[in-house]
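To close the chapter, one final illustration. This time we ask the reader to focus less on the individual chains and more on the assembly as a whole: which components sit near each other, and how the overall shape emerges from the parts.
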Amino acid sequence: MANNRVFYASHGVALASESGDGSAAEPSFNAVKTVQGAQSVTMNTNFNLEQVFQLGRLELFDNVVTDPSVEVTISKVLDGTQTIYELAVGSGSIVNNANKRTKFIIGVGSDTSETLSNTSGNSIICDPIYLSSVNYTLTVDGNFTEECNFVGNDKQIGGATVTAPSGTSKSTVLRRQNLSNSSSLPTEVNGQNIQSITISADFGREQMFKLGRLNTFHRYVTFPLEVSCEIEVLATGLDTLGVDIPDAACSGLSLAENTGKFIMCDTDGVNRYEIDLGSKLKLTSVAFGGGDTGGGNATLTYSYVTYNDLSVRTL
Amino acid sequence: MSNRVFYACQAVSLDGTALAGVQSIDVNTDQSVIPLSHFGTLEMYKVVPNLPKLSITLSRILNRLNYIIYSGTLEDNINKHDYNLCLFIGEDTNKNTIDSLNLYNISYRFLSINSLNYEFNTDGTFKETIEFVGSNKEFDYSGCIPGSLSGLSSGSPSKTRQHFIAVSGISNELNIQSVSIGVSFNVQEIEEFGSNVYKSSLKRKYCPLPIETQCSFTAVIKSGGQIGINSYGMPDITGCGYTGLVPTKALNFDLCGISIALDNCMLENINYRNGGTDGSNAELEFSYKGFNYFTIRSSGSG
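The assembled structure is written out below.
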C-alpha cells in the first residue's frame, strides 16, 4: 500500500566511508552503516544554469546546465555510537581524511511499519559525496548533537537498502553530565561553570574541473582550514583579560596558546568520544552579556580559533 | 521610437550569412591626420586627412553550427581580403532585429581578418574573437539584405568544458583548466601613388610571413610526478645538438565537431605557480609558439 506520508520512523540514512586513501579515480567503499540516533536529514538538489544570449534576438540562445549539485545535512545525537564524521570519512584528523569520499544513501520505507523496511524501491544514492562541514554542540540543556553537511554532484534513484537502526543504544544519549573531567580546556574557562561548547569547521570543498569532462574530478578541502570553538560560561564576575598595548618599540602583544580536547563519557564512566583541536587554540574574543532586567544571568562567551587541527574519534 | 540599442536589436551578417552566437561587436573608425605647418605663420598650412582605417572586433560563442568564419588552412585564408560584414540595428521593442520596421544597416566591405583568438575554460563557454580591418564603411548599403537575418537560429548547445576532447601532443595526465590560441596576421597594404582611398577593392594587401601562432594552456597538477613530465633541465650549451626544451610539435585541438590544428610549435615557456599559503592549487602554464600553420575545420556535428 502506498505511503501517505514520510515521518521519522519511515526513513533512514546510511553512510559508507572510502576504503582507500582517496587517490583512486573510482572509490571503493567500506560496508554501508545506518546512522544511529539520526534526528534529521535534508537534501537539496540544485541545477545551476548559465544563460547565454546573442546579438539579434531577445530570446535565450542557450540555457546551459552547468554543475548540478546535491547538498545533504544530517544531524544526530551523540549516544556512544559512531559519529557521522567517522561513518563518512573514518576517525582521526581531517587532514588525513581530506581526500576521502563517502557514499550516502537515504531510504524511505512504509509509513505503517514500526521500523524502517523495504527501502530498495524508494531510495537515493549519492556516490560519491564529500563531507563539507561539521558542527558539535554540547549544552547544559538538551542532548549533545552533531550536524554534518555533505556536498556532491552525483545522485542515483533507487536500488539501495537502508537497514533500520538498532533499537537500543549501548549507551544513553549524552547530556551535560557526560563531559569528562579529563577534557583539556582552555585556561580562561578552566574551573568555570560552562554552559555550552560549540565546535565547527567548514571544509570549503571547492570543485576541481578539467577540460573534456563535465563532472568534477575532485573536491578539495580549502586549507588553511579554520576550526572555531565557542565556550559560554556563567559569569561570576567580569572577565579577567586586560588589554594593554605597549608603546615601546620592538614590543608586541601575545596571547597564550591553549589545548582543546573534549572527551565525552557515558554513565558507566567509559570514555565514548574525543574531539581534539590540538594545542594551538587562540582566544579571538570575549563577550560579556546578559544579566539584564529580564532577570537572566550574565554570561561570558569565549571564542577560540585554530587552523588545520581537528580530530574526531569514537573511543 | 527607440530609446537605446541592446543585444536583441542589433545583428551581424558576414558575406550574406547571419552570424549566430555573437556576444559583442566593437567598431573603431580611425581617421588619422597629418598636420602641416610652414614658415612665417603660426597658422597651420594644412591638415591632411590620412587613410581612414577600420578595426572591428567580434566575439562569439563557438557552437556546432556549420558556419566557421576562418575555415581551412592558412593558405586558404591569408589572401582573402573581401569579407563583407553588415551590422543591422533595429528597434528596441522587438524580439528579433529582423522584425523591426525601421531597420538600419552599416556595411563594412573588403575586410581582412587581422587576428583570431580562441579561449576555452573550465568555467564559461568557448569563445572566438576575430579582428577585421579594412577601409570601407557605408551607411544603409543596399547589399546588406535584412532577409539574411532569417537564418539566425534560436539556439544550439553552447560549447563548455565537456566539449573539449583532447589535445594531441600534450600528456593526457594533465588536468587542463584553460586553453588560449591566438594568431595575428598583421595585414599590411601596399600603397601606391594615384590609388583611390575609397576603392578598397583595388588595394593590394598581404600578410607578412612568417605568421606566428601562440598557444598557451594551464593545468592543475596532482602530484610531484607531474612536474617531472616537464622538468626540462638546462642543457650543456657547448653541445651542437641542442634542439630546445622539447622538439617542435604539432598541436591538434578536438572540440566535438571543430578541430584546430597548429604545427611547428616550440615550447617557449613553462611557468610553475600558485599553491601558496592562500590555499590555491599549484598549476603549470605552458606557452607554445608556432609558425605558418593554422587550420580550422568543422565536421558539422558534435
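Chain A touches chain B through 26 residues (CB under 8 Å). The helical segments of chain A are 84-89. With these observations in hand, you are ready for the problems at the end of the chapter.
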